[in-house]
Amino acid sequence: MEKLSLSLPEDLNRRVFIKGLGFVSVGLLLGTLGGCEELIEAIKNRPVRRRLRTGSAEVDADIATYRQAVTLMKGLPAGDTRSWNNQAQIHGTVAGGFNFCQHGTPHFFDWHRAYLFYFEKICQKVTGNAKFGLPYWNWNQNPDIHPAFLDTTSPLFLARNHTSMAGIGAVSTAELDPIFGDTNFFTFAQQIEGTPHNTVHSYTGGTMGTGGSALDPIFWAHHCMVDYCWAKWNIDLHNNNTNDSTWINTVNSHFVDADGNPATETAGITTLMPLLSYQYESSAIGSSPAAAAIKTKREFQELEKRIRAGANIRFEIKQRIRLADKEAISIARPLSKEARLSPDDFGAIINSDATKDRIFVSIEFAQLPPTSDFFVRVFVNFPTANSNTPNDDPHYAGSFAFFGTEQPSPAESEHKHQPRFLVNITNTLQKLKKNQELKDGSPISVQLVAVPFAGKFEREDTQLILEKIEIITTPVIVNPPSR
Amino acid sequence: MRTMVKTLALRKMHCCVCVILFFFAVGRAAVGSVGDSESKEVEGGDAVYYLDTTNPSITQPIESRNASLEECKFVQIEVTEVRNPKKYSLTFQVYFQSKSKEKVYLGSFSLYPPDNPGRFIVATQGKLKDQGAIIVSMVTPDKVDPGDTVRVAVKKVKLLKGS
């Protein structure tokens, strides 16, 4: 069986580009753009998110700052995007349900992490306390809502149906341990959402049980705990996030920065936030004990490397079908290629939910394009797809983008970076088959459609030098995380 | 400076191999009759079962057809419709019941908001055995006033394989 290596060599130009993006990204995560020394100091001294509990002077100080922030945000004019109501409305409203929050999707974790990140920045700004970290409600270790949120005269109070999660299975060690034993990013996230997250919202009740839950100050402490679950699973328990580029490059928006300006983040950037912009005071969740703090630079670098890399995935290719060979294609014109194959050739995969094999389109380019202000959508059996075809069309399979551009090279023989993309089309084929839009015996075709990021291409005459397009079938083997 | 920036670079973001993974395969191992709940067939042959305060549970026998039970990592429960105008908190407890009627607790999930449908998974933890059944029980932690409606439609439970 043929093995496919996913590692790619880096060329000099790409490294230069990576450095630039890395620097800016880190600056944004820290809310500062200074020299290296400032960045190192900011990372070292990033705010601490502490576990809500009584008897800790540090936690009491955090609660006092939080109380002040809530008061100040509630006092901001209605037109200020940082006001308490406006911040809550990003998530949803009591009567209208959800607005922009992600629930029941693969972006539950990252959307809420970005939401908390910007909210924390606003708290820091309005209180003038740049070291403030949102406290988290560890409902597993401390099932009672902290008394500071129960004082009816406090801005942290809101009427709730229940003020303790004691005795509720969804936050118990017995239920959390199997969830934390799951090494798959997506199913772990799905279980955390459905079990402790939903149950705490729903059981606490009152405003917390509605789409407008962010109006209740305990919302932020609850979601901080949900975020800590992710961070603990990823950092302390050595599990890896997905390296699916569609997930990584998904842009979450509708947030507001500390100055009230619109802000966006990619899902990929959020994976670095607990390393670069805040840190959790460790505590136990279920049978997973509090972890020792990272002490050495080397430990930090190794952790950062692992988090950037994501999951370790291996393929064992069973079948390859060539769709296209080397040719120059214009980004201004969608490309459509037809295979001498029909859905019944993949019947064992399309018609069975039990098989582990998946069908991918593999797209290889001879070099990076001269511009990269666009992404490419991949459709199946939709020859008329164009840049206006939305990604919720049933023929849509996925997308990819180029990072970096080809630079003129003095030596023709010098190594060029050859971007390669894999897009899983299994579910799209299954969906089309189910909708009777895919008939046995009719050929399968694949469309590539370039879509400009900013609504317009920087250069419409940009050409992509295609190396080949293939359809491959392979199981996806997620290797166990390194410990 | 050079080293620092390199360390901070988003190396992963530039790995130009992108894999769009659908993270698990669906195993249609669990398809069976309904126990104590009304059912109806919907388009595509998917049965829908109704849970309410009078009939809060469904029992669905496991018929291991396409996949071995050891490979099934999750029970998937899809709540398709909720009538809960008073927004009572709704939790669903999932059990495996063996041939000898012994019930093994697998896990729980809740609706948020409590009238919001969705698709949920609960880990099997390797506790499924052949010729058993999956039980899904709706629990309302707060007392439901007589006359209030709480009615939930649930699709046939599915067993999912892991990645």
Under CATH, the topology of chain B is which? Answer: Jelly Rolls
Number of strands of chain A: 17
Shape of chain A: elongated
CATH class of chain B: Mainly Beta
* CATH domain topology of the largest domain in chain A: di-copper center containing domain from catechol oxidase
What would CATH call the class of the largest domain in chain A? Mainly Alpha
Mean pLDDT of chain B: 75
Structural class of chain A: alpha+beta
Provide a brief overview of the structure.
Chain A has 483 residues and is an alpha+beta fold. Chain A contains 14 helices and 17 strands.
Set out the fold topology.
The complex is a heterodimer of chains A (about 475) and B (about 160).
Chain A: E1 2-4, H1 12-30, H2 36-44, E2 48-49, H3 57-74, H4 84-91, E3 92-93, E4 97-98, H5 108-127, H6 173-180, H7 185-204, H8 218-236, H9 245-249, E5 251-256, E6 262-266, H10 267-270, H11 273-276, E7 279-280, H12 297-309, E8 313-317, E9 319-324, E10 327-330, E11 335-338, H13 347-350, E12 357-365, E13 374-380, E14 396-401, E15 420-424, H14 426-434, E16 445-452, E17 463-478
Parallel strand pairs in A: 2-7
Antiparallel strand pairs in A: 1-8, 3-4, 5-6, 8-17, 9-17, 10-17, 11-16, 12-15, 12-17, 13-14, 13-16
Helix pairs in contact in A: 3-5, 5-8, 6-7, 7-8
Chain B: H1 2-8, E1 26-27, E2 39-41, E3 47-52, E4 57-61, E5 72-83, E6 91-97, E7 103-110, E8 118-123, E9 133-139, E10 151-155, E11 158-161
Antiparallel strand pairs in B: 1-11, 2-3, 3-10, 4-9, 5-8, 5-10, 5-11, 6-7, 6-9
Account of the protein in words:
The complex is a heterodimer of chains A (483) and B (163). With 483 residues, chain A is an alpha+beta fold. Helix content of chain A is 33%, strand content 19%. In chain A, helix 3 crosses helix 5, helix 5 crosses helix 8 and helix 7 (185-204) packs antiparallel against helix 8. Chain A is elongated and about 70 Å long. The model of chain A is unreliable at 1-24 and 410-414 (pLDDT under 50). Chain B has one domain (31-161): Galactose-binding domain-like (Jelly Rolls). Helices cover 4% and strands 40% of the residues of chain B. Chain B is built from 1 helix and 11 strands, in the order αβββββββββββ. Chain B has one helix at 2-8; strands at residues 26-27, 39-41, 47-52, 57-61, 72-83, 91-97, 103-110, 118-123, 133-139, 151-155, 158-161. In chain B, strands 1, 2, 3, 5, 8, 10 and 11 form a 7-stranded antiparallel sheet that branches. In chain B, strands 4-9-6-7 form a 4-stranded antiparallel sheet, with no helix packed on it. Chain B is elongated and about 45 Å long. In chain B, 46% of the residues are buried. The interface between A and B is large, with 90 and 59 residues.
